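We keep the chain:
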Amino acid sequence: MTQKIVMKVQMSCQKCQTKALTVAAEANGVNFVGLEGAEKDKVVVIGDGVDCCKVGYYYEEEGWAN
């Protein structure tokens, strides 16, 4: 089943945005990653069987989410 996950993250620079998208894209089952929101502060992940907990955990470790 395809699912859409939107996570609000705190990213201060373009390098952080690129890294956040790369991390999400490397998760199993991901078909699409992108940024949403006026400030591009929401990571959108679309895919089949994506483990949002793993992605969220990494974002928390990087200090992008709390």
Observations:
- The chain has one domain: 2-62.
- The mean pLDDT is 89.
